[in-house]
Amino acid sequence: MYERPKLQSLTPSITPTQDADGLSPLVIRASNLDLTFQTNDGPVHALKDVNLEVNKGDFVSFIGPSGCGKTTFLRCIAGLETPTSGALSVNSMTPDDARRARAYGYVFQAAGLYPWRTIGGNIRLPLEIMGFSKAEMGERIKRVLNLVDLEGFEKKFPWQLSGGMQQRASIARALAFDADILLMDEPFGALDEIVRDHLNEQLLQLWARTEKTIAFVTHSIPEAVYLSTKIVVMSPRPGRISDVIESPLPRDRPLSIRDSAEFIAIANRVRDGLHAGHGQG
Amino acid sequence: MKSFFPVVTVVAAVLLIWIIAVVPMNMHLTADQAQRDGLVVSPDTPIARQDFSGLGLAVRNSHLIPLTYVNIRPRLPSPHQIAIELYDTVIDKKITSKRSLVYHGWVTLAPTLLGFAIGTLLGIMLAVGIVFSRVMDRSVMPWAIVSQTIPILALAPMIIVVMGAAGIQGILPKAVIAAYLSFFPVVVGMVKGLRSPEGMQLDLLRTYHSSNSQGFWKLRLPASTPYLFASLKIGISASLIGTIVAELPTGAKAGFGARMLVGDQYGQPILSWAALFAAAITAAALVGIIGMIERGTLRQMGMKPA
What we know:
Chain A is an alpha/beta fold.
């Protein structure tokens, strides 16, 4: 059970970005990253001077209003967009090489399961593309279904599952080929609050068990604070990082931690960061 | 079965209008015949009767109304006459008889199915080319559209004659015309179907670093299946129409088209109408069969039943 800290000890122990302790190697490193889209309405400055370091095992959230470039940055990490200038490395490779090396699993806002494949068949999709053996596929499908708590649904078709279950299946699909990095683009954005809480809790357990590095885009302050070890607050026009918060919360987090003073203090700092970003824009 | 009652209602309404229309349509013919047979007709000369409409004549000669339904060469046959003709030529006649509609039906059906197969295959291949090659997208699609603006009635005899001159006769020229009509809906439907996966689904495959061919077999092709079936339903009926059109102007000796022509030329409208109905029933059956295959396939694929 999480103990609520006493009110008087309420000095938020938020420390600014600290250097890595040397044991956790860098997984993602962005320096002076810039991205400008050429559109019919003229150039759009999607990312400006983004600098960020993500260590192995981090849970990083990107939060900010629409148009702040959080999804664009995630897509840059995935090699789905190419920055205009600056340096970006993923596992010490270029993002595109990392993509070719299948360094990450990507979870989109919509589950995007193929309606003509069963849940098991959907999870098998990346495994087929990557050429795993039949026996290995079966074993991996069992394992990731267990990981997202969907045992027994292997033979079901997507339409037979609820939205939350479909999104869990899509996470299982991203986990199936054992990439070290999990990139998640507002994966629970379309789900209702109760389902979302439940999935957040499960995601933390999954993260603890798999020790993956997770980059997570969200609109929700409580979600970002609850999940992350590092919160990246972004602001729009041009998209840039306005604050990076290293969370002092313990890794083991029951849902009730959201009532704690520390949690609320971090949430306030995130909110301030969002407001400040808006003011400048 | 939900559509059973609406369909029956519409059919009943059409039948009713038809049955009513038979009387004025055939009245003049019937009156002429009745007079020759010695019945009292008013007015009593064909020329005087020309001044009356069919309806007006029917009102003056109500005793002749039942006879309008049994003309041997009616302007508009009554439904039961067609039903009897269909029964005679479909069920009573031996299939080997030259008067059997089953025989004529097969003569039309064989090139229809062959043409449909050719058209579908061609349509799918063109669609794949259009989706994967920008050059084909720019060059083939406009010509496919232009091809459908040429009246098939004008084109069909040319194809038959040209192929005949090249020594190709029988089932193939008709099948070519059927294919000419049926490839187009397949191209249009399949291009739309193969392009139906959204950006997110294509991005997902990119994150797996999948190849183009994997994207085709695992995403684009299955995603296009519902579109394909919609196209096939249009394609198969277009195919049948193409075959019949191919039979009409070319003096074909057998087939639904030949039957319709013979009926016209020898003043036997019941014959033409029976062939017309047999063709319509065949088309409905073909579309129905594809609908069944569609339901089976989509269920097999696990798509949510609509």
